[in-house]
């Protein structure tokens, strides 16, 4: 925050714990809803979003997302994903019509998503702290490569509503980080923030960019690429351009 | 539930929404803790677990896990992972000393995890409902292969504390499932439950089974396997035996 402000940026912070953020998406998210009917989350979410009857906390976060040029998601990796409070932020703020269900949905156009959507043109970056060692998250590490562990977030949560997704800023063994290392890491993070608009985002393919069959949404033949060690024909990394 | 009971099994159900499960891991999880000190989750969790000062809801779920021979986790896929309430179940129930931090941690033995641990010998299976089409989650589907999307859960949350992990039971396009299809899927799920103890689990490697360098925890050279389409030298699938 200090670094961004010192560079002339305006920063809004959502400290979910300090805000007492409600993590669980449930019927209370739809105050205008008839509670006697079976809850269909997608329908209820779409109706609340379209009719301006969402809860104020969700509306506030959506407004902040629309206001921002870039969004930094900072969290500790818990069980190879986000803490529940942040997952609940996604579950609740990404309403139908805002985070998904955007654009035409037909046999010829499966929505504006994966590179298109309401948040298109904005940039997003994960800042992730971990207790484990870097080697445990390396290409052959026991936890799985961190790049792949973060794919459901980078691709499925950030690229999905349109963000350009930057390479994540990763910190390992944070429990044993000394002052010197902390200062160094602050500097490195500062550089990443300074270069947020000049660094290249991860080259995820756009769903409607011509690389996918529609409506099957499978990658077209011929898009195999030279992978890390062999020609990939499937898997997460095929969804990045070579 | 009905199917398992009809086969003579005893079933305990944790319906997290009905239970009003607290999703957010925070200082309230450690009632014996000095709240004036900075909260270190791992330390606080380990102390509460070791001294019997956890909250009753967490203790109850741990007791149920120790009681069960097999655990079925049923949830809708929200943003390519669990709903926040279930992630919060993992964050809170998997205490230090129970879900992690088990066994010797040294330069020669990095804990009892990934195939060893408190839940070793038990079986676990995901039952996952999705709105999207099967092709969207196929080997070349735009969302990424479902097998890889579930790796952080199957490997990182289930295999980690020792579960033998069964192939998941997957249901696509659930919003448009008709009665006939629903009945068919119930039958198929019934078969999977009947065969829970005779089907082969996913052949994840054990961390302490000799395949990993210690303490780097990288797969030893020579464990490349014939992958789906090429010899894998990295990635999630290398952590399954050929």
Gist?
Chain A is of the alpha/beta class and 242 residues long. Chain A has eight helices and six strands, in the order ααααβαβααββαββ. In chain A, strands 1, 2, 3 and 4 form a four-stranded parallel beta sheet that branches. In chain A, strands 5-6 form a two-stranded antiparallel sheet.
Keywords:
homodimer; 242 residues; alpha/beta; Rossmann fold; four-stranded parallel β-sheet; two-stranded antiparallel ribbon; 8 helices; 10% strand; globular
Structure description:
Two copies of one chain form a homodimer. Chain A has one domain: Flavodoxin domain (Rossmann fold, 3-Layer(aba) Sandwich), CATH 3.40.50.360. In chain A, the strands form two sheets. In chain A, strands 1, 2, 3 and 4 form a four-stranded parallel β-sheet that branches. A two-stranded antiparallel sheet of chain A has the order 5-6. Chain A has eight helices and six strands; from the N terminus they run ααααβαβααββαββ. The first copy, chain A, starts with a helix and ends in a 10-residue tail after the last strand. The radius of gyration of chain A is 19 Å and the shape is globular. Helices cover 29% and strands 10% of the residues of chain A. Chain A has helices at 2-6, 16-19, 41-50, 56-67, 84-93, 146-149, 151-159, 179-194, and strands at residues 70-76, 123-129, 164-165, 169-171, 225-226, 231-232. The first copy, chain A, has 242 residues and is α/β, with parallel strands linked by helices. At the A-B interface, α5, α7 and β6 of A face α5, α7 and β6 of B.
């Amino acid at each position: 925050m200090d670094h961004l402000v010192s560079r002339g940026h305006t920063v809004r912070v959502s400290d979910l714990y300090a805000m007492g953020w409600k993590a669980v998406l449930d019927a209370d998210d739809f105050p205008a809803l008839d509670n006697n009917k079976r809850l269909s989350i997608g329908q209820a979410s779409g109706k609340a979003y379209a009719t301006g009857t969402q809860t104020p906390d969700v509306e506030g976060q959506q407004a902040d997302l629309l206001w921002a040029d870039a969004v930094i998601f900072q969290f500790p990796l818990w069980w190879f994903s986000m803490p529940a409070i942040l997952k609940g932020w996604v579950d609740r703020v990404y309403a139908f019509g805002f985070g998904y269900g955007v654009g035409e949905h037909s046999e010829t156009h499966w929505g504006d998503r994966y590179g298109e959507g309401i948040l298109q043109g904005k940039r997003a970056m994960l800042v992730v702290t971990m207790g484990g060692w870097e080697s445990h998250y390396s290409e052959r590490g026991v936890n799985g490569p961190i790049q792949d562990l973060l794919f459901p977030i980078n691709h499925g949560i950030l690229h999905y509503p349109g963000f350009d997704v930057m390479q994540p800023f990763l910190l390992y063994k944070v429990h044993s980080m000394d002052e010197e290392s902390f200062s160094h890491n602050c500097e490195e993070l500062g550089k990443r923030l300074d270069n947020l608009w000049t660094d290249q985002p991860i080259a995820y393919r756009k769903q409607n960019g011509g690389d996918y069959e529609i409506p099957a949404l499978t990658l077209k033949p011929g898009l195999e690429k030279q992978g890390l060690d062999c020609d990939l024909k499937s898997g997460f990394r095929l969804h990045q351009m070579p």
